[in-house]
Amino acid sequence: MGKVVIIGGGPAGMLAGIYAAQKGNEVHLFEKNEKLGKKLYITGKGRCNVTNACDTEELFPAVMSNGKFLYSAFYTYNSRDVMEFFENAGVPLKVERGNRVFPVSDHSSDIIRALERKLKQEGVQIRLHTEVKRILEEDGTAAGVELSDGTRVKADDVIVATGGISYPSTGSTGDGYRFARETGHKVTDLKPSLVPLKTKEDYIPKLQGLSLRNTEFTIKNGRKVLYKDFGEMMFTHFGVTGPMILSASAHIGKALEKNELSAWLDLKPALTPEQLDARILREFEAAPNKQFKNVIGVLFPSSLTPVMLELGGISPEKIIHEISREERLRFGALVKAFPFTVIGMGEFKEAIITRGGVSVKEINPGTMESKIMKHLYFIGEVLDLDAVTGGYNLQIAWSTAYMAADAVGKSV
């Protein structure tokens, strides 16, 4: 057993600290913030989507970059293991739609407190307000760290768990990428992921604040469908956001760098075009002498109605019995495919995660140890691994943390 230094007190760093200490190592965890788990605190809108309770093989399609690299990690430490860990640590969990796992309390603070309790129980020495400046190297091997005040801390193993550069206000300022480059590792291009999308049309900001549930979202590059999902979304002053929009951003990054993408919402996905037409017809037949603008409001939230009138191709003042079948069908088609153009993505300050990171080609997938420098490990978001929303990104953090914790101290 040996002395292990962990840089970063986020989810990966904390779990690695617990398991590394359980195996008899002396563990020191350095966190530059005033508290542990600062970014974890705001995940899942403060509820903390801990993992996804799907079967292990279903985790891989949710990973957008380098899913094969995670084969050993996911099969060694899966979502069932994560759930068991937190239940045993005193946090009752629940499974919601899409197999998303949350604490029953809906408080991310319960998850953080459980991790802190376990760290203390295992005797991990936690140093807050402590910034690591660089990794110490001896004969091509990681030998400890140098702190920003010049103090040198020797170690047998160093684990980098510094996160990405999304939400920089939580301390994710890219230190891990610097450590990686300084020790000879390749860092792939860094892009924001799981971010809101920016749109071109001037009618989208008019809908700012409107949330829609049970809609279907499709995004295309030319004729190719890049993403299609059913769920919740919200309009903003610059575009669209919400769970399925954030997940879409993970799929479209590369295509969006080359050109704008066409997108649309099916506002009534439960109805076929024929059923929707029958529904519109019923409303028309019930009020044949009313103006169009006074009839269609029953189909939509009030803030959406003016925009539907603007795009619908039917004069708002037109009397219902004067509307032709073609006009009615065209309006129904708009309801089934409300269009807009995606022109960009949100910035790192809005991103839930970072796409890109330390190249996994230089990391051993069975241990998370660097292939370039012995006794140096990279875990969690600092690696070139990212997934869609739904607890998958935290599962990457937990699984990679476990692999590193299981490996450290063995070769000392």
Shape: elongated
Quote the beta fraction: 15-25%
Q: Order of strands side by side in the largest beta sheet? A: 12-15-14-13-16-17
How many strand elements? 19
Uncertain parts: none
User: On the 0-100 scale, what is the average pLDDT?
Assistant: 95
Determine the structural class based on helices, strands and strand pairing: alpha+beta
Largest sheet: 6 strands, antiparallel, barrel
Question: Which value, in Å, is the CA radius of gyration?
Answer: 25 Å
Task: Please tell me about this protein's structure.
By secondary structure, the protein is of the alpha+beta class. About 30% of the residues lie in helices and about 25% in strands. It has a 6-stranded antiparallel barrel with strand order 12-15-14-13-16-17. A 5-stranded parallel sheet has the order 6-2-1-10-19, with helices on one face. The protein has a 3-stranded antiparallel sheet with strand order 3-5-4. A hairpin with a 4-residue loop joins strand 8 and strand 9 (about 150-155).
List the main descriptive attributes of the protein structure presented here.
412 residues; alpha+beta; six-stranded antiparallel β-barrel; five-stranded parallel sheet; 23% strand
What layout of secondary structure does this protein have?
Elements: E1 3-7, H1 11-22, E2 26-30, H2 38-42, E3 51-52, H3 71-76, H4 79-88, E4 93-96, E5 100-103, H5 108-121, E6 125-127, E7 132-138, E8 141-147, E9 152-154, E10 157-160, H6 175-182, E11 191-193, E12 197-199, E13 211-221, E14 224-235, E15 239-241, H7 243-258, E16 261-266, H8 273-286, H9 305-311, H10 325-336, E17 338-345, E18 353-355, E19 376-378, H11 392-407
Parallel strand pairs: 1-2, 1-10, 2-6, 10-19
Antiparallel strand pairs: 3-5, 4-5, 7-8, 8-9, 11-18, 12-15, 12-17, 13-14, 13-16, 14-15, 16-17
Helix pairs in contact: 1-5, 1-11, 8-10
